[in-house]
Specification:
single chain, about 550 residues, alpha/beta, nine-stranded mixed beta sheet, eight-stranded mixed beta sheet, 15 helices, 19 strands
């Protein structure tokens, strides 16, 4: 079973600051032994540090993902002893964390530091192993049935991690640790000023047990429903012309990434084929519709023979023709359905090309709740009273920890989202009263191609951030595209503390411990602002 741990950037920053810098807590300055107080035992930044992380488990066919919601730093009064080579929490500190896990459903991750370790092979010491062999079976038995107990050790430059597998009664390596969202200058392992927005770390033990791969060929996932092998030497040469631009490590990341594309209209059709050409290892295609004659002006690659066929089947065939080694999963259903939400929440990256505010609302919450990077695209045109084009363009938005979300930016129309999410009998009643009967939005293939290419370029930019170069910068929160000017305008944005989705009391990293909006959910909160330059994403 593959197990990965996902940290939102702010939680990762808090963990590393506590473990390596021991920043004083203003609430504990008066406590004897607290950081900043006189006669504190040990030396912060030299002695080992300890913290617990509460994480929500997400189970899927690919394995288990632990999304970190909260860091519980162990303060001096929470420690039995502390030195440069050993550390132990008090029984009360452990009991309090376990109680919360049992009552609230969390998995428990125990993290401690090796402040003396500056190398690339950080791993558990003999003392660590002895401790984990003794305690992990007992701790796992005290956790909720679907929860896991994991431990991590962080050095200055690398880390190691493992978990207790109840079925085999053994300690197994953590497959991967991911950090999503830029973090500040805290030190190594992603704590640089130029830290990437998506950091992937392979723990030492997992790297040591991984099967070897050929240096010239990217690794591909072996699981999926429609995987085909191309074979031959052509595949080795397929990416020779793009590797000088994006780098071999980024090419490897593409091959190992699962991308969910939700919506296969004018934007989504371009996006799916561009991802196939780039070498994305696995695509999850989600769309409930079939191809109609009016779609053919903008569904790139679709022909008259495709009319009446499900869009997901048409594009699965096209992707396989372009990239036979790509695994393609298809879901012919709305993103609001459980059949679609399952594979999308298991993806590494979600690209939204949807045409409704209800779908945007669900994707936005899914991204925040499951700590999945989400790029949302929309394109459109507006005509003036003389039927001349007055606006033509679109936008790509990034939903990542630290950048806010679509809801707090005002890009979700609450009334239209409520209509989209309402049961069919309510939608029918609203339509009978004249709501939801707008004319189809104008759409043209070159506009879709422009915005979709920007979306895919930012996908590569995000993945390239795992190995920053002089040319790789952060993905903007919003990028506005104006075809008439023409211009691209990056727009900065940040989280709003009161946002019900990504704010302090929102759903960040709650994963399966909190329900997503569904078609029977209550209406979203009142409208909060504007739509983008294009208004409505193309379908």
């Amino acid at each position: 079973m593959n197990v990965e741990i996902v940290f939102p950037g702010p939680q990762w920053e808090l963990l590393r600051r506590h473990l390596f810098e021991a920043v004083p807590d203003p609430d504990t300055r008066s406590i004897p032994g607290a950081p900043g107080a006189p006669s504190a035992p040990g030396t912060p930044g030299v002695d080992e540090g300890l913290a617990f992380a509460l994480a929500a488990p997400v189970h899927s066919p690919a394995g288990v993902r632990l999304t970190v919601r909260e860091i519980l730093p162990a303060r001096p009064q929470d420690l039995e002893h502390r030195s440069p080579v050993a550390i132990a929490p008090t029984a009360d500190f452990v009991a309090a964390a376990l109680t919360r896990c049992r009552q609230e459903g969390w998995s428990l991750i125990e993290a401690h530091s090796h402040p003396f370790d500056h190398g690339s092979g950080t791993t558990f010491s003999g003392v660590d192993w002895s401790s984990d062999r003794a305690k992990m079976p007992r701790v796992a038995g005290l956790l909720p049935e679907n929860a896991l107990h994991a431990t991590m050790v962080l050095g200055r430059s690398h880390l190691d991690a493992h978990y207790y597998d109840r079925k085999s009664a053994s300690i197994r390596p953590i497959h991967r640790v991911r950090v999503l969202g830029a973090v500040g200058a805290v030190g190594a392992v992603g704590g640089r000023v130029d830290a990437p927005q998506l950091l992937r770390i392979t723990p030492t033990s997992s790297a040591a047990t991984a099967p070897p791969t050929a240096p010239t060929a990217p690794r591909r996932r072996a699981w999926g429903r429609h995987r085909q092998d191309s074979g031959g030497a052509a595949d080795d040469q397929r990416y020779d012309r793009q590797i000088p631009l994006i780098g071999r490590e980024t090419q490897q990341q593409l091959a190992e990434t699962t991308v969910a594309i939700v919506g296969l209209g004018g934007l989504g059709s371009f996006t799916a084929l561009e991802c196939a050409h780039l070498g994305v290892g696995r695509l999850v295609l989600v769309d409930p519709d079939t191809v109609e004659p009016s779609n053919l002006n903008r569904l790139i690659g679709a022909t008259e023979a495709a009319v009446g066929r499900p869009k997901v089947e048409v594009y699965a065939d096209l992707v396989r023709a372009v990239a036979p080694a790509c695994t393609v999963d298809t879901v012919q259903d709305s993103i609001l359905s459980s059949d679609a939400l399952g594979p999308v929440r298991a993806a590494d990256l979600v690209l939204g090309c949807v045409d409704s505010h209800g779908a945007r609302l669900v994707l936005n919450q899914l991204a925040v709740q499951y700590v999945i990077p989400y790029l949302d695209a929309g394109s459109g045109a507006r005509l003036d009273d003389a039927h001349r084009v007055s606006r033509l363009g679109g936008q790509v938005q990034a939903v990542l920890p630290g950048l806010g979300c679509l809801e707090c930016r005002g890009f979700i129309d609450a009334r239209r989202a409520a209509f989209d999410l309402a049961p069919q009998h309510i939608r029918s009643r609203e339509i009978a009263h004249g709501y939801g009967t707008r004319e189809p939005a104008p759409s043209v293939v070159f506009l879709n191609g422009l915005v979709a290419s920007l979306l895919v370029a930012q996908t590569v930019q995000l993945l390239s951030g795992t190995t920053p170069t002089a040319h790789a910068g952060p993905v903007p929160a919003i990028t506005l595209c104006d075809v008439l000017t023409p211009s691209l305008l990056p727009v900065a944005a940040g989280p709003v503390d009161a946002c019900p989705t990504c704010g302090a009391d929102g759903v960040t990293a709650l994963a399966d411990l909190s329900p997503l909006h569904s078609a029977t959910a209550s209406a979203p909160p009142p409208a909060v602002g504007r739509t983008g330059i294009g208004g409505r994403p193309d379908a």
